[in-house]
Amino acid sequence: MYASGELEALFRATFFHSYDTLLEGGAAEPVYLPGHPHRICYTRDYFRSALHEIAHWCVAGPARRQQEDYGYWYAPDGRSADQQAEFSRVEVLPQAYEAIFCAACGHDFRVSLDNLNGDGGDEAAFAVEVKAKAERLLVEGLAERPARWCEALATAYGREDVSLHQALQLLFS
After folding, report:
1. Cα separation, 166 vs 122, whole angstroms
2. Is the peptide bond before 37 cis (omega within 30 degrees of 0)?
3. Handedness of CA 25, 28, 29, 35 (dihedral sign)
4. Closest CA relative to residue 168, chosen from 136, 126, 125, 145
5. Which of 22, 25, 29, 84 has its CA 20 to 30 A from that of 44?
6. 58-72, 79-93, 97-111: which range is least confident on average?
């Protein structure tokens, strides 16, 4: 039911003409590559990886979308506690969007500390932060790109009548 290739087609139909951007699976590591077209590359064929990389794209403004990987700092797996704290700080917003996208299409969600060979930090505390941020985003109203993506996901997965607020609560229960 949740095939990443379907996300690629849906993303293209939703955003290609207005943002000249494609979603592509098969990458060993996720990366954003600006160009003509811009390419959001997600890990292998992982549905959640695709949603997560779209979340980063939704966070990035026009200037960031002209830079490889949006010009963001990234330390690989094996981060120190200080590096992990910085990672967690910058990951709250993208993971909040990812949670909202999962709620929109009915897919499971779990926060990712992405540090299997280092100090991952407190997953429960991070989940509380991500949930709180997602709730604030829904209350304040989503920006154009994430709102459009949620609408496309809800339509594609037959969830037009499901409240994002309620679906989000279920993800974290």
Report:
1. 25
2. yes
3. negative
4. 136
5. 84
6. 79-93
Closest CA to 118 of 89, 80, 83, 86: 80
Helix (H) or strand (E) holding 172: none
Quick one: pLDDT at residue 89?
84
Angle at 101 between CA 100 and CA 104, to 5 degrees: 90
- Sign, CA dihedral 55-113-90-134, equals positive
| Rounded-to-integer distance, Cα 52 and Cα 21, Å | 16
Beta strand segments in 19-151, E: 21-27, 31-33, 38-43
- Give the count of beta carbons closer than 10 Å to the beta carbon of residue 84: 22
Query: What length does the chain have?
Result: 173
Write out pLDDT tens, residues 12-69: 999 999 999 999 999 999 999 999 999 999 999 999 999 999 999 999 999 999 999 9
